[in-house]
Design brief:
The structure holds 2 protein chains of 2 kinds.
Chain A: H1 2-31, H2 35-44, H3 53-73, H4 77-100, H5 121-140, H6 148-154
Helix pairs in contact in A: 1-3, 1-5, 2-3, 3-4, 4-5
Chain B: H1 3-47, E1 61-63, E2 70-76, H2 81-97, E3 101-107, H3 116-128, H4 132-141, H5 143-147, H6 153-162, H7 167-176, H8 180-192, E4 200-203, E5 206-209, H9 214-230
Parallel strand pairs in B: 2-3
Antiparallel strand pairs in B: 1-3, 2-4, 4-5
Helix pairs in contact in B: 2-9, 3-4, 3-6
The chains are: A mainly alpha, B alpha+beta.
Chain lengths: ~160, ~230
């Protein structure tokens, strides 16, 4: 029983770490590049209206980076997974429509900035679907023992 | 103490605990967020190679006078279709602003384009004979043809012949690969400046990526630089 809960906790900790890590990497890679690069990537997608591009390019990497880090640290897990889940749903919609309606399929989706990891739209559709599944499960889970949330909730309980 | 009073006290205790917890949450969240934002800004200060002045190009391919008030640096790939669509816009802008603008071409062949490195080498060989811009135009004008070719080397030699160049020397230059270092130098300078895709244009430290609204962006930026220079 104890071993079971240890394995379960380890599993969900790893899931949290992986999903959060993907977002931290994606956000940081974009933040570390000139914003014009991301604007150009977003402009290439036929579904995204031009007027949304400057705002999205400014805000998106920060959301990815900060909420990804929240998830790794285990801070505000439910709100963080909801934000990241909404982001993933948005990505899947944009990528899916671009790929299957407009036939837009660049060699690099631009999801991780210009350097480092290069994924095609199809590859990223799979990755985002898996991340969304993980995010939903993380949001549904009541307690995350190895997290800041757990520590903050039980801080000073002995008093 | 009545049971009602006991209940009220317990509820008060719970509410106090909840308030304390909320404050702790808020403080922790604010602290983490501020730390992350600060860390990114500090990192960017040390790692963003945005300053164009830091990159010296000894093999510059320029169009327009050195005295031009505005200098546009173009990072481009000869096999990139979007770069081809940028060419008429650039020509129009150069014509409109006459001697006020200088365009500098820098090689940035993308790894996804099979024949781009060879095309850039060929253009650099033409550059050695003072025919860079003519060769540049031929490569873009006929991009669709040579891009699909199983081996465009012969086509590149043909372009050199069309421009009246010594084909023997051109073939030697192409095979020798000595110009590769020049292409790489341009490419490395692009990497240093965090050029991620082509075409990327740099006007002083302002960056324009892609061709969407390119004409308007170029004209706005040129006008801004000209205004700044005329004001002192």
């Amino acid at each position: 029983m104890i071993l079971n809960s240890y394995v379960r906790n380890t599993f969900w900790f790893v899931v949290r770490f992986v999903v959060g890590g993907i977002f931290v990497y994606a956000g940081f890679a974009k933040l570390n590049e000139p914003i014009e690069n991301l604007r150009a990537v977003l402009l290439a997608y036929p579904v995204i209206p031009d007027t949304f591009v400057p705002g999205t390019a400014s805000v998106l990497p920060w959301i990815e980076f900060v909420f990804g880090m929240f998830l790794i640290l285990g801070y505000a897990i439910r709100p963080s997974t909801l934000v990241l889940g909404a982001l993933l749903a948005g990505f899947l919609t944009v990528l899916g429509i671009s790929r299957f309606v407009y036939g837009f399929s660049p060699e690099d989706c631009g999801c991780f900035g210009q350097g480092g990891i290069h994924l095609t739209v199809s590859q990223v559709l799979i990755l985002d679907s898996l991340c969304l599944l993980a995010a939903v499960n993380l949001a549904l889970k009541r307690d995350h023992p190895w997290s800041l949330d757990h520590w903050l909730e039980h801080f000073g309980d002995k008093e | 103490m009545s049971s009602d009073e006991k209940k009220t006290k317990t509820e008060e205790k719970k509410a106090r605990k909840a308030r304390k917890q909320f404050r702790r949450y808020l403080f922790t969240g604010t602290f983490i967020t501020l730390t992350l934002v600060a860390a990114v800004f500090v990192w960017k200060q040390f790692h963003l190679g945005e300053r164009l002045d830091e990159v010296v190009n000894r093999h510059a391919k320029q169009l327009g006078p050195d005295s031009a008030l505005v200098k546009i640096v173009e990072y481009s790939d000869f096999q990139c279709p979007v770069c081809r669509t940028a060419q008429p816009i650039l020509k129009e802008v150069m014509q409109t602003y006459g001697g006020k603008v200088q365009l500098e071409f820098r090689h940035f062949p993308l790894s996804s384009h099979k024949w781009a490195p060879l095309a850039h080498q060929a253009a650099e060989c033409a550059n050695q004979k003072g025919k860079f811009w003519e060769y540049h135009d031929l490569l873009y004008d006929n991009q669709a043809a040579w891009s699909r070719s199983p081996d465009p080397s012969g086509t590149f030699v043909g372009y050199a012949q069309d421009l009246g160049m010594d084909t023997g020397k051109f073939v030697t230059c192409l095979k020798d690969g000595g110009v590769t270092s020049i292409v790489n130098q341009d490419s490395n300078s692009g990497n240093f400046l965090q050029v991620g895709s082509t075409p990327t244009f740099l006007i002083n430290n302002t960056r324009i990526v892609g061709v969407t609204n390119l004409k308007r962006s170029l004209e706005t930026e040129i006008a801004r630089v000209l205004r700044e220079k005329s004001n002192g």
